[in-house]
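In response to reviewer comment 3 from the previous cycle, which asked for concrete evidence that the modeling workflow produces usable outputs, we include below a single protein chain processed end to end. The sequence was submitted unchanged, and the resulting structure tokens are shown without manual editing.
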Amino acid sequence: MPRLRRQIETPLAIGDTFTFIANFDNAMHWDPGVASSRRLDPGPLRVGARYALGIRMRGRVTPMEYRVSALEPPYRVVLVGEGSGVSAVDDIRFEPSGTGTRVDYTADIRLTGLARLAQPFLGGAFEKIARDALEGMRRALDARAGAVGAASVGAVPAGAASTPAGSGGDRHARA
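The workflow returned the following structure tokens.
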């Protein structure tokens, strides 16, 4: 069974990073190998929550169902996936870093049935899938961090008066 482990860092805060990644409904927004993703049951994220993913494999989309098997907000989520000829365990850990969050992603992938005979020859393909997924994750998280930062630019601190530019209230702007 190939075990793939990768780490990324993002400036996005740990809570926001965890919320976005742990909800596998978002997988299609960061993993280019995921054609579709949707939650199968209602309610908040919890152990037992289920997701249907359409995984791109060999030029077609194959269905996989993932289930949250461990949840430790905002530090860890484990998802177990089953599909036609493949099973996976994705263990995703989050920790604060100096400027945001470090994400440690470990995926154990096992081919089942006749496909398992090809597993020894697919190591490079699995590595590429992992690289692409984590690069997509980093881009999506960094974009979210940029959106959060942009939303706070120009925000007026609580209790501060806001005066339109040129109305005389901005005495430091004039020489």
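The chain has a mean pLDDT of 81. We consider this sufficient to address the reviewer's concern, and the full set will be provided in the supplementary archive.
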